[in-house]
Amino acid sequence: MKTFAYAASAAALLSIPALADARSMRAVGSSTVYPFAKMAAERVARANPRLGTPIIESTGTGAGFKLFCAGVGERFPDVSNASRRMKAKEAAQCVANGVKEVTEIQIGLDGVVVATAISTPIAGITQRDLYLAIAKTPFGKPNKAKTWKDVNAKFPALPIRVYGPPTTSGTRDALGELLMTPPCEANPSLAAMKKSDEARFKAICTGIRTDGAYIEAGENDNLIVQKLVGNPGTVGLFGYSFLEENTSKVKGIAINGVAPTYQTISSFKYPGARPLYVYVKNAHVAAIPAIRAFIAEITKESAIGPRGYMLAGGLVAAPAPVRARAQQAARTLTPVKFAELK
């Protein structure tokens, strides 16, 4: 394989070898976006054989950004898939390592699902129930709940055993932000703490217990499904796509009376609904022609529209204006404004 020069920006001139000598496009990141990205990569390869098949790796969102932001050049990924938006501290890492122009493309929606084996006698919970079950220090006090009945008297006395994603996962971040923080900050003293000591507020509202009640199951959400099936009475946390694929084995648990479905996620009625993203390293685009082919493919209506093939991966179509912005971003590669990230 010949080496090739990368530009500091997409507009700069590049020394580009023949397509056959350029390496394949490489994407890292979210396990939730992975199935859809793989389907898109296969379509790119069939339509453009000379570009090669884009390499898609499931590393988890946080780990993906770490790899993506590590630098510009042949050994660094071109694309990062994400089940949450890039954070300001990740953008700062990008800039520090010379990754100064990144395009953000919102591709669709997903939901953070609470699920269990079909035989488990739990059908619905509230965000407060979930917070009290898995928070390390709910409302600032050590978590002493051993069973679901300790959390809410209406639940059976099943031991709290929750399989969920690790800290590198975007699903873990979304769990804290979407499902745990709202009931926590409903407490007046904690709402005040958010203004005076945000770090402590975040630790109390999103910190997850480490006493064995919450079990990190890695980035493979299918493994969580297997754990639920093999251990009735346990609960799992993962993306909606994996629930959609396994409805004969597990059931989604309604949150605040709203079940996780395509309709409730697309309307954001489901409290765990979240947007999904693809980030492109602009400096690599001219050197790796497959990048443009890939982002054109993932923003087609046949991919991300209401009847697009992303549905086969368990994802949910975003509203039409969001899809239109994604298509424009793929065409123009307008960099995201890092200063706007939180």
- The counted number of beta strands is 11
- Rg for CA atoms: 21 Å
The coarse silhouette is globular
How many independent structural domains?
2
Listing every helix as H and every strand as E from the N terminus to the C terminus, the arrangement reads EHEHEHEEHHEHHHEHEHEEHEHHH
Q: What is the oligomer described by this structure?
A: single chain
What is the highest CATH level, the class of the largest domain?
Alpha Beta
- Termini distance? 39 Å
The CATH architecture of the largest domain is 3-Layer(aba) Sandwich
Calculate the mean pLDDT score and round it: 91
Beta content: 15-25%
Major sheet description: 9 strands, mixed
How many separate helices?
A: 14
The CATH homologous superfamily of the largest domain is called Periplasmic binding protein-like II
Tags for this entry?
342 residues, alpha/beta, D-Maltodextrin-Binding Protein, domain 2, 2 domains, nine-stranded mixed sheet, two-stranded parallel ribbon, 14 helices, 11 strands, 15% strand, disordered N terminus
Structural description of this entry:
The structure is a single chain. This protein is of the alpha/beta class. The protein folds into two domains: 157 residues, 3-Layer(aba) Sandwich (D-Maltodextrin-Binding Protein, domain 2); 163 residues, D-Maltodextrin-Binding Protein, domain 2 (3-Layer(aba) Sandwich). The protein has 14 helices and eleven strands. Strands 1, 2, 3, 4, 6, 7, 8, 9 and 11 form a nine-stranded mixed beta sheet that branches. Strand 1, helix 1 and strand 2 form a beta-alpha-beta unit. The longest helix is centred in the middle third of the chain and has 16 residues. The chain is globular and about 60 Å long. The N terminus is likely disordered.
